[in-house]
Amino acid sequence: MLNPGQIVRLLYIQRVLIRYGLDEIVFSFNLFRRVRFLQYLLPWNWINRSRAPRAERLRRVLEELGPIYVKFGQLLSTRRDMLPDDVALEFTKLQDNVTPFPGEVAKKIIEVSLNKKIENVFQGFDEHPLASASIAQVHTATLKDGREMIVKVVRPGIEKNIRRDLGLMHIIAGMAEGYSGQIQRLKPTDVVKEFERTLLDELDLMREAANASQLRRNFAGSDLLYVPQVEWQYTGRNVMVMERITGIPVGDIQALRNAGIDLKWLAESGVEIFFTQVFRDSYFHADMHPGNIFVKPGEGGTAPRIMVVDFGIMSSLSEFDKRYLADNFLAFLNKDYQKVAELHVQSGWVPAGTRVDEFEFAIRTVCEPLFDRPIGEISFGTLLLRLFQTARRFNMEIMPQLLLLQKTLVNIEGLGRDLYPELNIWNTARPLLERWMGERVGIRGLIRGARENIPYWLDRLPGFPTKVIDLVERLSDGRLQFEWKQDELEKIRQELDENNRRNILAIIGATLLIGCFILMGLSTAPEVDNTGILAWVLGISGGIILFFSLHR
User: Fold this and answer.
1) Which pLDDT tens digit goes with each residue over 358-403?
2) H or E element that contains 466
3) 171, 269, 321, 339, 370 from 333: Cα distances, Å
């Protein structure tokens, strides 16, 4: 049920939708479905008006509703497997344009978090924010030892506002699912749950600091990527202090040229860094847009380095995920659509009953046009998106980490080709994919797996002879029992138990009825005697039991 505050908020949302000519969304809610005819009585619908494209109007609605809805739109822009292309593309333009909160408030939050006066921590603190976003804002500061830092501070009261809007989003998603089967297949409630988890994670700056430390450790000693260091002693749930980096924004191509940066090297290095994160570390920065990437020119003969910031959105991949990507990328590269289809069916990504030939034809139909161009112009991200869209038609559940990877891959490709239009992503990525595959299959993979598992085997080895002897004794004594835990077998067992209970009740009911007939036959008195009463009791009881046994 909606509380008064949620009703007011919902009415405000509907007013904004109507203002942008999106009445059909308002009247699609279950709450207003019975009065849908009012849509045709509203005066602004009596005349034809020139309107912006639907996708643009939806974007402007989210921007007017506020920062939480802007972030929701940003998340939806990553779900191109379920949104129309025009809407997903338009949602990528959403930006956090949020009025900063006063620097004095930020100082108080920092002092409460650190339990120290701000002058005891910093020799200088700039109250004017360097950047302001929907969740937090960033200030610059100087530590007592002279090191330059950035201080990220969570907005005061933001969690309360987030939970209010999330509650309403859950209600709206539930309404949308009840509206049509097509919307229900998109699982809006699951999308809102994913958004809720992502948003609440961003409120905890300890989590972001841990993400930064992990990425920094993964690239320790790297000549390509530099990750700033977290000052853990001054970091808490709503305050994070991190080394301040300086460099040229990667989107400022003219400044990069003026600094003598080789744009071909920069584009290829960005692709290499991304695939290294994915296949070597199974852990990648999932918010790699130009605003989060900087380039530090080389000094004194040293090579330039790429630097990244903002570690609120990271993702990891399992070995299963990586094998999925590598196998499919290489199969696509060889245009082996049958192998792609077989990989999906054999691994259980799509239901076991899926016909491989139908899946293969669907993949070929979608992907073959992509290959009607030079290999260097083909987009990895678009290819992955087309695969996801096709697989969804065959009831494949796409994991969130793969969707984040697809979005990040699109960003990396777009940025790389802005820097160097002739960038051939396949040539850059293929050696990394083949090297990773070579380390996990064949003799090298067997040796590597054995080396990684030897400590585990040695730890279990002392108890192995005892377990073998116990197994042999159980076999010889006939005491060995197999425990089956499959859901289907458990369901069959329950059905058999239910049938047994039903049969027993039917036998009891039939027995009572037979007893009733026998007693009625023995009763010869014209009036109702004790035998007749007993017969009626048995008959009624037997009838009731037999009825329930047949209708359980």
Assistant:
1) 888 888 887 777 766 665 667 777 777 777 777 777 777 667 777 7
2) helix 464-477
3) 44, 21, 18, 12, 11
- 3-state DSSP assignment of residue 325: helix
Which has the higher per-residue pLDDT, 207 or 30?
207
Judged by DSSP in three states, 439 sits in helix
Helix or strand (DSSP H, E) at 150 = strand 148-154
Q: Look up residue 327 and give its two tokens.
A: 């196998």
184 and 177 in contact (C-beta within 8 Å)?
yes
Q: Is a pLDDT exceeding 60 seen at residue 320?
A: yes
Please give the Cα distance from 328 to 390 (Å, whole number).
14
Kindly tell me if the per-residue pLDDT of 527 is higher than 60. Answer: no
DSSP string, 13-68: HHHHHHHTT-HHHHTTSGGGGGGGGGGGTSGGGSS------HHHHHHHHHHHH-HH
DSSP tag of 230: B
How far is residue 102 from each of residues 99, 109, 126, 153, measured CA to CA in Å? Answer: 10, 11, 11, 11
- Structural tokens at position 192: 């809102």
User: Is there a contact between 376 and 368 (Cβ–Cβ < 8 Å)?
Assistant: no
Catalytic residue among 23, 81, 165, 287: 287
Q: How confident is the model at residue 239 (pLDDT cuts 50, 70, 90)?
A: very high
Q: Which two tokens stand for residue 213?
A: 């430390």
The whole-chain average pLDDT of the chain stands at 76
Question: How far is residue 512's CA from residue 535's CA, in Å, rounded to a whole number?
Answer: 9
Q: Which long-range contacts (CB under 8 A, 24 or more apart) does 25-30 make?
A: 28/176, 28/179, 29/172, 29/175, 29/176, 29/179, 30/175, 30/178, 30/179
Predicted TM-score of the model (pTM)? 0.69
Burial class (CB in 10 A: 0-12, 13-18, 19+), 319: exposed
Question: Helix or strand or coil: residue 420?
Answer: coil
Residue with the larger pLDDT of the pair 285 and 48: 285
* Catalytic residue list contains 459: no
Q: What is the pLDDT of residues 115-153, one digit of tens each?
A: 999 999 999 999 999 988 888 899 999 999 999 999 999
Q: Is the pLDDT of residue 164 over 50?
A: yes
36 contacts: CB under 8 Å, gap ≥ 6: 27
The mean per-residue pLDDT over the stretch 293-308 comes to: 87
